[in-house]
Write a structure and sequence with these properties.
Elements (H helix, E strand, L loop, with lengths): L52 E4 L2 E5 L14 E5 L2 E4 L5 H11 L21 H15 L3 E2 L3 H9 L52 E7 L29 E4 L15 E4 L8 E2 L3 E2 L2
Parallel strand pairs: 6-9
Antiparallel strand pairs: 1-4, 2-3, 4-10, 5-10, 6-7, 7-8
Length: 285
């Protein structure tokens, strides 16, 4: 296998709740004009608000393995231009996704007895993640979607060119990953916001859960990383290895720090549902 862990569904015993402190920010304002760096939430037609979002400025960056520590699928390093967009401050939580399920009469994903609320939602396949963004679009009147792979790396790098947003060496207690510190000893995903944010103000871009993107995975960069797949382009096949593969980013709680570098990539069939896979949303401006 190319990674230290596979995407097989994990048979996990019930674990005790984690007492890691979760930061409680002041309630972000609901705004019609989105300003850079100011958290915002869009109103939902059913009442309440959508996920907390951050506006990112347009810019360009070098995408891919810049430090020579990655795999061949992180190459070639290349410059990418990104338009301004908004992205979730956190991974989508069970609390947010459960509202979608209740409103659309969908079955709620299981939580492995880790709790719900501010736990990042998992066991959601790509099709359902896209359906959630489409529901948000209808509910808010704004275009929500999954981020492209290029947008995801731009957001996770936050203006840096190192393996992690804080530098090239992994530092303990920075993220939920395998043998990454005291909090990570829980051997599970942790509530969103349990660690410090990157310079853009985004949480959990390192470890916790792999995150679905909107892009097709390719073994070498050749442009797909900058494009978003339409749901009509993605066919569900009986064999997970047949058909299109979707790019995932960010590493996860059961992988080594090297697999959570900002340029690290993985892929999965669109019907994959595992305990180390979730997503965050993006929004057009």
């Amino acid at each position: 296998m190319r990674r230290s862990s596979t995407f097989a569904v994990l048979a996990l015993a019930a674990l005790s709740a984690c007492n890691a402190p979760v930061p409680r920010d002041e309630e972000p304002q609901v705004v019609s004009t989105v300003k850079p760096g100011i958290p915002f939430r869009d109103k939902l037609k059913i009442g309440g608000t959508g996920p907390e979002m951050l506006r990112l400025p347009a810019g360009s960056f070098m995408m891919g393995d810049l430090q020579g520590q990655g795999l061949n699928d992180e190459l070639p390093a290349h410059r990418v231009k990104v338009r301004a967009f908004a992205i979730g401050k956190y991974e989508v939580t069970f609390d947010e996704y459960d509202r979608f399920c209740e409103n659309t009469k969908r079955q709620k994903p299981l939580d492995a007895e880790w709790g719900r609320d501010r736990q990042p939602v998992m066991r959601v396949d790509w099709i359902d993640a896209v359906a959630y963004t489409e529901w948000l679009s209808v509910q808010t009147g704004f275009k929500y979607r999954l981020p492209t792979e290029a947008e995801w790396e731009y957001a996770a790098r936050a203006g840096t060119d190192t393996d992690y947003w804080w530098g090239n060496e992994y530092e303990m207690d920075r993220a939920s990953c395998f043998e990454c510190g005291q909090l990570a000893l829980a051997w599970r995903a942790l509530p969103v916001g349990s660690f410090q944010p990157n310079p853009f103000g985004l949480y959990d871009t390192v470890g916790n859960l792999w995150e679905w993107t909107a892009s097709e995975w390719t073994p070498k960069y050749k442009g797909a990383e900058q494009r978003a797949l339409r749901r009509s382009q993605v066919k569900i096949t009986a064999n997970y290895l047949d058909g299109i593969q979707i790019a995932m980013r960010g590493g996860s709680w059961n992988l080594n720090p090297k697999d959570s570098r900002v340029s690290s990539r993985y892929y999965g069939a669109p019907q994959s549902k595992t305990t180390n896979l979730g997503f965050r949303v993006a929004r057009d401006l």
